[in-house]
Amino acid sequence: MSEIFTDLPKIKFEGAKSQNPLAFKFYDAGKPVLGKPMREHLRFAMAWWHNMCATGADMFGVGTADKSFGAVPGTMEHAFKKVDAGFEFMDKLSVDYFCFHDADLIPEAETLAETNRRIDEITDYIKIKMGESGKKLLWGTANMFSNPRYKSGAGSTNCADVYCFAAAQIKKALDVTQKLGGRGYVFWGGREGYETLLNTDVKFEQENIARLMRMAVDYGRAIGFRGDFYIEPKPKEPMKHQYDFDAATAIGFLRQYGLDKDFKLNIEANHATLAGHTFSHELRIAAINGMLGSIDANQGDLLLGWDTDEFPFDVYETTMCMYEVLKVGGLTNGGLNFDAKNRRPSHTPPDMFHGFILGMDAFALGLINAAKLIEDGRIDAFIKERYASFSGGIGKKIVSGEATLSELAAYAEEMGKPADPASGRQEMLQGIVNAVLFGD
Ligand code: XUL
Ligand code: CO
Fold first, then answer.
1. Is the full-model pTM beyond 0.85?
2. Distance between CA 169 and CA 2 in Å, rounded?
3. Axis-axis angle for helices 160-179, 112-133 (nearest 10)
4. How far is the CA of 143 from the centre of ligand 2 (A)?
């Protein structure tokens, strides 16, 4: 098999002072941070759809990047070339994991049987490449949003036949996720939502989505899949409203339908901001509910109201992300999947490398910084102290669950003026963050 990225070298760590654009400045895979190598904390993954498939086409124009890899797009030959290119890319960038939708791997055929045969053929080849390279599958998923059959949703469709087609796609995607030893299976509900309530039975649609997820869990467990199922929350785009709006909504849904034991969340940075939240907020909500599963590592643009899927660059964001990850004890089966694409004018193979170098370095910095914040301890200590009034006296009684409303009312009548809640010291804490990040 001949080399595809011929002029591009294996990317090495050269340190922050290096001026070589094709080198890592901060990502040093084996370097321990809080006792664990960077590569294990971060578990970077390549998104097949962006890196091997997307050409930069948008609503206003065709693609600018050539991702043919020497074959004719839409053929099985091209599908195989993408595998060769993908594994060469992961090797050169030291990315240990990848993620895919069924539709990223092969061109869909006229019949489901032929599509599935193609999926078998390509995953046989991927399995061989995985064995040779040691690369692993972070998660698999089914694309239930691009084909026109899903115009009115997949699990939420009004058409029972389409629902069955979605079931067939999930079954196959689970089969190959299991075949390739995948650690997770994602549901991103791209068309699971509505454009108008005037034509939508929200309750029925949500119940049907839950039924499909239940069937997926039952099937997955029956074929021996022990990994995590994930919901990937997103509030809108392509739909006006998507049911998995944000972490809190998705958690409520999972609990409502008894799916919370098998599912966690795959939190995406750009989806968080589309929902009007910070990335950290979504991570925190998932974490405190025991559902922080995996992360789609990208960033949006707050001046734009859509999902721009940019490579992460903002080190405050990556720092506060890794702070949440470290505080929750790390990701169990999950990792950081670059659901990110080059900007349309950055259309050459070197740009694919620069995108990953940027993202991996930004997250390596985030990890280093987050570890420093934790080791510094001042933020943790401040928060602990802030709630100290609940560690003794009436506060302790409240927390223990023994207090009654009447008892608290009587206490309030007795005490006269309540104590002043101490200052929140936001600016001081922000100053501490900057001092820790830039102090040496
Ligand atoms: C879309 C998105 C998806 C999921 C997988 O916004 O994030 O690519 O990550 O279906
Ligand atoms: Co995503």
1. yes
2. 33
3. 20
4. 12
Residues 6+ away with beta carbon under 8 Å from 78: 68, 69, 71, 72, 107
Please tell me if the CB atom of residue 192 comes closer than 6 angstroms to any atom of ligand 1.
Answer: no
Distance CA 229, CA 139 (A): 9
Residue closest by Cα to atom 8 of ligand 1: 339
Q: How far apart are CA 138 and CA 45, in angstroms?
A: 7
Residue closest to 227 by CA, chosen among 163, 279, 173, 164: 173
Tokens 């104590």 found at? 419
Q: Convert 89-135 into a string of H (helix), E (strand) and C (coil).
A: HHHHHCCCEEEEEHHHHCCCCCCHHHHHHHHHHHHHHHHHHHHHHCC
pLDDT digits (tens, 9 = 90+) for 97-143: 999 999 999 999 999 999 999 999 999 999 999 999 999 999 999 99
The two tokens of residue 48 are 């097949």
Q: Residue 345: is the preceding peptide bond cis (ω within 30°)?
A: no
Ordered alpha helix ranges (H), 200-348: 202-222, 247-256, 269-274, 279-288, 315-327
**Is pLDDT of 1 > 90?**
no
Question: In the structure encoding, which two tokens stand for residue 134, read together?
Answer: 């040691």
Catalytically annotated residues: 101, 104
